[in-house]
Amino acid sequence: KQEVTQIPAALSVPEGENLVLNCSFTDSAIYNLQWFRQDPGKGLTSLLLIQSSQREQTSGRLNASLDKSSGRSTLYIAASQPGDSATYLCAVSKGFKTIFGAGTRLFVKA
Amino acid sequence: GAVVSQHPSRVICKSGTSVKIECRSLDFQATTMFWYRQFPKKSLMLMATSNEGSKATYEQGVEKDKFLINHASLTLSTLTVTSAHPEDSSFYICSARGGASDTQYFGPGTRLTVL
User: Fold this and answer.
1) Residue (of B90, B89, B115, B94) closest to B106 by Cα position
2) Which listed residue, A5, A21, A66, A72, has the most CB atoms within 10 A of its CB?
3) Closest approach of B72 to chain A, Cα-based (Å)
4) Cα–Cα–Cα angle for A15, A35, B78, rounded to 5 degrees
5) Residue B86 and residue A100: Cα distance in Å, rounded?
6) CB contact under 8 A, B91 and A41
7) pLDDT digit string (tens) for B57-92?
8) Which residues does chain A have within 8 Å of residue B106's beta carbon, measured at their own beta carbons?
9) What is the largest CA-CA distance in chain A?
């Protein structure tokens, strides 16, 4: 059974700091891994999608890496801003199933 | 990118009533739709998977008679919470799989509060 773990559960950083969010999964046989952002009371916003054959994806200040063999992914956020404050969810897909981690709640202080 | 909508975005109902939530893929055909439930400060839990024109497949522990799912067309799936109770209060999110890249797209969610 696939399990997805995100560390840390919560993170508070000053504005401008670079930070790394971690995601690990137990079954390396995945089709893709996706990072989402969720603001309080809102739905999901897809940030980055990494196919199983890829090692990383970049979008603006965000960079996500994937190491399937070790069952790990990281989301790197450069030069964090208060507007980055949200919950970040990692999700792995295999077939029709997508399993989510519990998320990392990020707070960027101005 | 592809858009998935949900309606309503927020609903408050009395205990014992039934509530229907709609999920629509606006610009692509979704052969498969998924329904998730999210408890406060928890992750999304898959409730069921539905394919157009067939019965939904429910995850273990999800009552199919409680949460009725209908996927009547390639652009619409509905989740009906029957005889709602306060413990059904939650955030429900749907997603639809399809489009050129066969990616899963998520709706904005529906906040259900049962009094």
Assistant:
1) B94
2) A66
3) 19
4) 125
5) 25
6) yes
7) 999 999 999 999 998 888 999 999 999 999 999 999
8) 36, 43-44, 46
9) 41
